[in-house]
Amino acid sequence: MFSCKLIKVIVLENIASARKLMKKESVDALIVKQPHNLYYMSGWSPKVTARPILAVVPLKNETTLIIPEIEETTSQRYADQIKKIITYSENKYNLFEASARTLKKVIEDMSLTKGRIGIEEDFLPIHYYRFLKNNLPEIELVDADSLIWQLRMIKSEKQIENMRRASEIAVIGMDILLDVQKAGKTELEINKEAQNRLSPRAHELYSEDKIQVEGGVLSGWKTVDPHELPSGKHLEKGETVKNLMGGTLNNYYTALHRTTVVGRPTDDQKYRWETLVEAQRKALELVKPGTKVCDVHNAIKLVRDEAGLGNLRAHSPHAHDQARTGSGQGLHYHEPPYLRASDDTELMPGMVITVQPQLNDPAIGMGFGIGDSVLITRDGHEVLTEFRKDTIY
């Protein structure tokens, strides 16, 4: 059993933080359905199924979980910090109507039929919006996505501790990943061997926590596409290999990214790698409270431009500039803020971001990337996934 007491404390802190911000923004309650937000507010990450699960987080009453009857026993085991759990049956109504009717009843019992209710406009199905507006005509539904992201972007000390431990797992995993890769092996063979060696180590370190390890390698032409999947492709001499290792502890995620070459690297491969290392170094010099994330992104772009590698479209019409060079991390591996030219979010203490410049060049069939999870501190930053940067040699 993972650390239920720690998760309970984190959830109660999350709800208290949410209520402070809700009061500031005159929001009487939040309706939460998106799985990561649901975990943030309840500590429960149920398997995603067709049966809706929602949480109502009021400013003044008890937080309430709305779940299908089939999940009642499981919810009591993993979400005991939520004292009010209400079930719905699908015997009389379809799943949507059954859950929506229960949601309406919860809002009525909280005396919020004329309240200002925050919803996840990016996620909550339109059916719920229409149902509530039709059946509670005096209710005011407002977009709460920004409010929720304000909460999730700043990590508490206990959340940060989870991410430190997840980073420790990622670092151990990267060492293993580099140790097992050899020319002739397939990507899937390498990934399986690394997972089999890492999982026992991770669970030995943190036996009471909920742990997930993930990651692996992509090689050769597949390193150009940032969203390729591992396969039975064999590693061949001279190819670049992108190595990604992520650790998740109690659902909080960090990641470590390095590039290697199968065999001896060429001068051009060394140059591209050293350019990325320098780009990340320059970016990290700016990572501190008050810096806009677009300025961190632009620092990376400037180093690539000065190295003559800023516009890969000159080599191939299918190449692309890196739209973003990192993002926030937490319950998901990509969260706001995003390190891109259009995001002027200022870094604040408690944020965790990944600084991850890449060079993906279809003209030569090779991609290069480096990435680390970085905590913003009061006076600067701390690299959580500290790992050597000479991996290409």
Describe the structure concisely.
With 393 residues, the chain is an alpha+beta fold. The protein contains 10 helices and 16 strands.
Q: Considering the protein shown, what is the CATH homologous superfamily of the largest domain?
A: Creatinase/methionine aminopeptidase superfamily
Count of the separate structural domains: 2
Query: What is the number of helical segments per DSSP (H or I, 4+ residues)?
Result: 10
Amount of helix: 25-40%
Question: Given the helix and strand composition, which structural class is it?
Answer: alpha+beta
User: Describe the biggest sheet?
Assistant: 6 strands, mixed
H/E series, N to C? Answer: HEHEEHEHEHEHHHEEEHHEEEEEEE
Q: Which regions are unreliable across 5 or more consecutive residues at pLDDT < 50?
A: 313-317
User: What's the total number of strands?
Assistant: 16
Distance between the first and last residues' Cα: 42 Å
At the third CATH level, what is the topology name of the largest domain?
Answer: Creatine Amidinohydrolase
Principal-axis shape equals elongated
Broad CATH class of the largest domain: Alpha Beta
Strand order, largest beta sheet: 4-3-2-1-5-6
Strand portion: 15-25%
Overall mean pLDDT score? 93
User: Which radius of gyration do the C-alpha atoms yield?
Assistant: 23 Å
Give the second-level CATH assignment, the architecture of the largest domain.
Alpha-Beta Complex
